Amino acid sequence: MLPCILFIAILSLASTAHSHLVMALPSTWGLDTSLENPLTQRTSNWVCGGRQRPANGPVTTIQAGQVLHVPVTCGEAIHNLGGAAYQCATDSDGTNDYHGGGGCALSIAYTSSPRVEDFVVFSVNHDCPRAWSTWIPFNVPINLPAGEATMAWTWIPPSTHAQPEMYFNCATVRVQGPSAQLTGGRRLLDHIYGVPGFSSRTPSPIYRNVLPNGALQISTSAGGGGQCQSGHARCTSDPSRWEHCASSTWYSHPVPANMRCVQEGSLISWAQRW
């Protein structure tokens, strides 16, 4: 009888160690199959899944006020996004990969070497992850400040479908939005679970139960000279970008490829890059 009980226990443990899910943006740090592994109390280096920002790696563009579609898929399908929904739902684990959903969050930190304390949650999708779907839509706040940053994707599965665990991937992003500074919002630090220093409680604090759905409220301070007159445009200290004013706020944009911004009085134009 004992061997049978032991065999069942081993099968139970194995069920929590099969394929899982990952944010599969091209700019995801350390994107490979192993990144899907869940983070638990035994994970020593868990911020960004233990990955670091690659030098000269890809960058994902985020537009403030728009919808960002993020691929969330099983590890074996990270290079097959077109067929990922079918591949993940029909592999040996089937829809078990999705652990009953629970909701996913996107957070941002305006640094290339972030600590968990640096991240502010800016968008949540309660219907994430979901079987037979790869691209998850996230609404982006209209006041998300412009600049290069680190974006985190986090997910805590329901305790009815998984052991105490969470998922935490990072990606390099560039926000096109108002020229401002992020000063406040919901901290990711308050929504970490099941890793060293953070409790594993029942039920797990899944995001669809503890965070609003959609773009979250964030606070910013005026940047780039503060308020402005709608319709005005200007070059910035970065010649590869320009700004226009709308609703008393400066919004940042890239200039066309291989060009630079030139300003004469109140007029701006493009010139060949040096």
From TrEMBL:
It comes from the Eukaryota. Its cofactor is Cu(2+). It is found in: Secreted. GO terms for molecular function: metal ion binding; monooxygenase activity. Gene3D superfamilies: 2.70.50.70. Its main location: secreted. Residues 1-19 form the signal peptide. Keywords: Copper, Disulfide bond, Glycoprotein, Metal-binding, Monooxygenase, Oxidoreductase, Secreted, Signal. InterPro entries: LPMO_AA14. Coiled coil: none annotated. GO terms for cellular component: extracellular region. Transmembrane segments: none annotated. Belongs to the polysaccharide monooxygenase AA14 family. This is Chitin-binding type-4 domain-containing protein. It comes from Catenaria anguillulae PL171.
